[in-house]
Design goal:
The chain is mostly beta strands and about 210 residues long. It has 1 helix and 14 strands.
């Protein structure tokens, strides 16, 4: 499991003003499930068609995790490790195609099919936090310039007790309180006909007093 230390996390945050960086990740190990230059290891597909592909600009020898299903309402893959109560997660995403939707998101506190997701959409000028419990419900939204299709962008979330924060490309845009889900695993998310690539994933468990 690729988990970066708190020391590495804060070094990365200081370097870029509030977001993880590729240099903040641990060196790849042979069983590292976040090194997509190697076969996919330990992930659990809930919905979708997830696989490793060559993607321009991907950090792991040009390879990334790509979701290609276009007929599901939502597509979710859950990472190994956890569960986490308090956690920070960072990932890059590249919306590659989609007519109805072109989104990417980070799932957190996933347990028994319930979860939170922070997502951005290349076709919409908003950045949103949802919860899913046999249906998706929006918790909060903020207006943004839509992230460009075909380019890499960085998502980051922090879930610390009931405080949930979300960043897009280094800017904190969501700061919300919600306590309906308290712990679970992390994962990745797309919607509808989105074809989206993900890489550069980092996970940092947080102490209760952070």
């Amino acid at each position: 499991m690729q988990v970066i230390s708190r020391r590495q996390l804060f070094a990365g945050i200081a370097a870029v003003g509030g977001s993880f960086t590729a240099t903040g990740r641990l060196a790849a190990q042979s069983d590292d499930p976040f090194d997509f230059s190697k076969p996919l290891y330990g992930w659990a597909t809930m919905d979708g068609e997830w696989g490793i592909e060559e993607v321009p600009g991907a950090v792991h020898n040009g390879r990334a995790l790509v979701q290609r299903a276009t007929t599901n309402e939502f597509n979710v893959i859950v990472a190994p490790g956890g569960p986490y109560a308090n956690v920070m997660v960072s990932a890059r995403f590249r919306p590659m195609a989609g007519g109805e939707d072109a989104s990417g998101g980070i799932v957190f506190r996933f347990s028994e099919g319930r979860y939170y997701v922070v997502r951005a959409n290349a076709l919409e000028n908003n950045f949103r936090l949802y919860y899913y419990d046999r249906g998706r419900r929006m918790i909060t939204t903020t207006s943004i310039t839509a992230p460009a299709l075909g380019q890499w962008h960085r998502l980051q979330i922090s879930a610390n007790r009931d405080r949930i924060q979300g960043w897009l490309n280094g800017r904190v845009l969501i700061d919300q309180r919600d306590s309906r889900f308290t712990a679970g695993r992390i994962g990745l998310w797309t919607k509808s006909d989105s074809i989206t690539a993900f890489d550069s994933i980092a996970v940092v468990p947080l102490d209760d007093n952070d």
